[in-house]
Each structure stands twice: as C-alpha cells, then as structure tokens.
Amino acid sequence: MLKYWKEMLTGSVPVLLLFLWYVGVNVVPILLAGAVAGLLLFAVRTRGQLPVPGGGKAPRKQPAALTFDEIGGQERAKQELMEALEFLIRPDEIARFGIRPLKGILLTGPPGTGKTLLAKAAAHHTDSVFVAASGSEFVEMYVGVGASRIRELFREARQKARKAGKNSAIIFIDEIDVIGGRRDGGQHREYDQTLNQLLTEMDGIQANESPRILLIAATNRKDMLDSALLRPGRFDRHIAVDLPDKKGRRHILSIHAAGKPLGKTADLDKVAEETFGFSGAQLESVLNEAAIYAMREESDTIEMHHLTMAIDKVMMGEKTDREATREERERVALHELGHAIMAELVRPGSVSTVALSPRGQALGYVRHNPQQDRYLYTAEYLEGQIMVALAGAAAEELFFGGRSTGSRSDFEQALGIVRTMVESGLTELGIVDPGMLTPETFSRVARDLLDRLMEKTKACLREHRDVFERSLELLMREETLSGDRFREFLRGPVQAGA
Q1: Buried b / exposed e across 69-89, counting CB within 10 Å, b at 16+?
Q2: Is 129 helix (H, G, I), strand (E, B) or coil?
Q3: Residues of the chain with pLDDT under 70
Q4: In this structure, what is the dihedral angle of CA atoms 462, 466, 471, 477, given to the nearest 10 degrees?
C-alpha cells in the first residue's frame, strides 16, 4: 500500500505544481523546500550504505553463508541441484562436451520444505552472488512497473557480481506463480508485461557472458505456471522438494537440536516417528517450542514431555482457556475415546495420546503415532481410516443417543477419503473420470459407503463398551491419557489395575 501512495504522489505532484504556476502562484519556494526535504530523506535512507556504480538502488543485503550440509531431509533434491550447478563450477569441462548451460531451475513443493535454503546453499556451493526477491514485489497497479523491476533485478545481479569479483550470480524468485501464472488472454496487462520481461531476460542469458546468471525460482503451485516458463531453454530443471520421510525428519531434528540442552529422556527418533507429514519448518518449530516449555518450567534440559507438548502445539495450536460444562467434557471424552479405540483396533499401537484439553478449535484430540511412513493405500486401509474418523460420532450415539457438532471435521475428513477412493477406482464405480462424476453419483456412493462403515464402527465399539467405562473417569480427571496407559485399559481390567 505504501508503494501505491508513493507512485500516486510521483505522478500527481508535478501536475499540481504546473497548475499552481499556471494560476500565478510562485512555485520556486515550494521547489526549494521539496529539494531540501528530498536531500535530507536521501541522506537518512542511505546512511551507512555505499552507492551502486552506475546509479540504482542500494544493494540487497547478502545472506549469511549456508551450505548443503546444513539442510536436512532433502538428500535427493540436494543431489539433483548440485548436479545442475556443475556448469557454474566446471565451465571448461561443460564447454568441452558442448553442453548448453542451464538458465533456470524450478524448485516445487509444499511450504516450509527448504526451497529458499536450497537456493542460498546453491549460491555458496558455486561461489556466486545471491540476489533474492518475491513474486509479489513485481506486481503493481501501474503498467510497466513490474517489468522495470525485473530488468533492475537482473541488472543488480550483474553489477553485484562484478563488484564482488565473482564469475556468476544466482537470482532467486520466491512465489514465482504470482507473476508466472498462465496467460488467459484477459486484460491483466501488468501481469503479462512482467512475465514477458522475465521471459525476455531469460532468453538474454548467454552461455559466454560474464558474469553468468542462473535463475532459481520456487513455487507451491507448479500447475499454475505458464507453459512458456516451463519449456526447456528457460526452466531446464524441475526439482521436487517434498516433505521429508522419517530418516529425513531425524536428520532435520538433529541439525536444529545443535546448541540445545537435550535431556536424557529426549528421544529424537520417537519425535521423528510422531511427526509424519511435518515440514522442515514445522520440525524446527517443534524444537523451538520445546525449548520455550523447558524455559517456562525453569528446567535445565529439554525433556521428552517438552517435545511431546511442542508437537501438540505445532499440530493443534496452543491450549485455550475455554471452560466447558461437565456434560460437554464427558461427551468430548467419550468422542475421543471412540477415535482411540477404533484406531487401536484398526492399527494396534498407533495411539500416542488421548487428550481432553482444548487446543486451537478442538475441545479434545487423539494424536496418532504412525509406525511407518506410507505412500500407497489399499481400499481396506482407507476404510479403516474412515472408521477411525466416524468412531467419535458413533461413540456419542452409543452413549447419548445422538451426535453433536463436534463431528463436523471428522465427517469432512471421511468424505475426503471417500473422494480419494473414488478417484483411485477403489469403490463400486470402478475406474471413472473424476471430471465426469456428477455430484449426485458421488453423494450416493459416499452415503452408501459411510452408512455401511458407520454400522460396522458402532458394532465394534459396542463390543468394547467396558473400555469406555474404565478409562472415562481417569481421562476426565487427568485430561491426558498416554497411549501405553490406554492400551492397558484396552487389554482388560486386570492389566489396567496392575
């Protein structure tokens, strides 16, 4: 918003001065005052900075050096990126084989997986100048402003490389989908001109130029990018930066645990198991939040219960102070116990914690502990997951005769799994084109499947009604039930009292 005002003032002030001069007002004092104010503002803004040769803006701050060894959980992506950077490290050998140097590398993947870190490490690996920008910096309300900023970005990279005595420069554009989206022939002239200028600059990168320019871009939505950007000769390499697996999560945790006083009970292997689906940024937040919990308790070390609380906070949000009636607490407790019992029946040993304490928007929750990372799912496995999602509502019906609004997110999760099954050909419809599937057909298939699994879930919970009765009082009193303690209740009253 501030940039919009600056641009509007730049255009309107000269017009106002011309009007005042036309009506006979002496504008010389105004011009002198404006010049003095401009010089003072320029002196304040450039204090402690060196001017850029040839004019232009002050240089962007160079980030601290970062190596590939300091990035965990992305071994395949790092290997692909280092292979693509060989033309900057060994230009003579690349030229001997007649290999055309790469102009652009596109990093794709979910947020927080380390795309920006990989770009910074690439600059250190190749001894290049690093210039970073975000796609939103090039979007303005006036046509041509974005295109001029693209030109300035490439000019700045070349100037900084020459000034630093470097042979190459890496330009990193985050969120490139903001300016690189598909052109639909509409009236977005500013977006189109910015993208056209970026394409022109990439075409202007020559194999024999010095310093050599490499453009690295990152996006979470590769499917939105224009095909002109993705073709060979522009973004030659597309590298997927996915969520880390268990081994990668363990590596990331060990990197961020450096310098933190971990206690004897802290088990990073267990943390890696319990954080399936976490990104690198979330894992860093887990260790940071655990350190905060330890500091609050005035503990000298970070223990396992601090890490467990940190996982819950990153996954579910901070604890809230909402006070519920006893009836509501009992309903929530039975709801969560239903989820936990069905989860143990479907996948024994999967429950990590059953909690009654409110976090985020949830009044209670069950945290699951995946035994191993899974990437392929059968119909039997997905039906089991649906039964786990429906078990909360089934438990409410079993004890209260009806459901509550607390099952809304569970039903959304169940419907999402049903849609996955339909699109994967795992339902009675067989193999279908999702685009040809009508809402009525999907609704019928989902209703039949969910009704059948709901009845199956109720039957399983009825057989374990005694587990609800044995564990309800303890959960209501302590608000948290560990997975091991819950499995004792599930095995029977003798073991639970042992």
Answers
A1: eebbbbeebbebbbebbebbe
A2: strand
A3: 1-13, 15, 17, 19-23, 25, 27-28, 36-38, 40-65, 139-144, 184-191, 207, 320-324, 360, 370-373, 493-498
A4: 100
Quote the CA–CA distance of 458 and 433 in Å, as a whole number.
33
pTM of the full structure? 0.70
pLDDT of residue 54: 37
Q: For the segment 65-99, what is each residue's pLDDT rounded down to a tens digit? A: 678 888 888 888 888 898 888 888 888 887 788 88
CA distance 294 to 353: 20
What's residue 53's pLDDT? 36
Domain ranges in the chain?
Answer: 2-45, 68-240, 246-316, 326-496
| CATH class of the domain whose range is 246-316 | mainly alpha
pLDDT score recorded for residue 9: 56
The phi-psi region of residue 470 (left if phi > 0; otherwise alpha if psi is between -120 and 50; otherwise beta) is alpha
Distance CA 81, CA 78 (A): 5
Q: How far is CA 164 from CA 158, 167, 210, 376, in A?
A: 10, 9, 13, 50
CATH number of 68-240: 3.40.50.300
Q: From residue 236, how far is each of 103, 196, 198, 229, 290 by CA, in Å?
A: 7, 18, 15, 9, 42
Q: Confirm whether 86 is a catalytic residue.
A: no
461: amino acid identity, one letter:
L
* Residue 139 region by backbone torsions, left for phi larger than 0, else alpha for psi between -120 and 50, else beta: beta
Asked if 248 and 263 count as a contact pair (C-beta separation under 8 A), the reply is no
Pairing of strands 168-174, 212-219: parallel
Query: Distance (Å, rounded) from C-alpha 106 to C-alpha 44?
Result: 38
Cβ–Cβ under 8 Å, residues 358 and 390: no
* Gyration radius from the chain CA atoms: 30
CA distance 275 to 113: 14
Fold exhibited by the domain 326-496: Methane Monooxygenase Hydroxylase; Chain G, domain 1 (1.20.58)
Annotated catalytic residue, options 137, 274, 284, 336: 336
Angle at 81 between CA 78 and CA 86, to 5 degrees: 125
Number of helical H runs and strand E runs in the chain: 21, 8
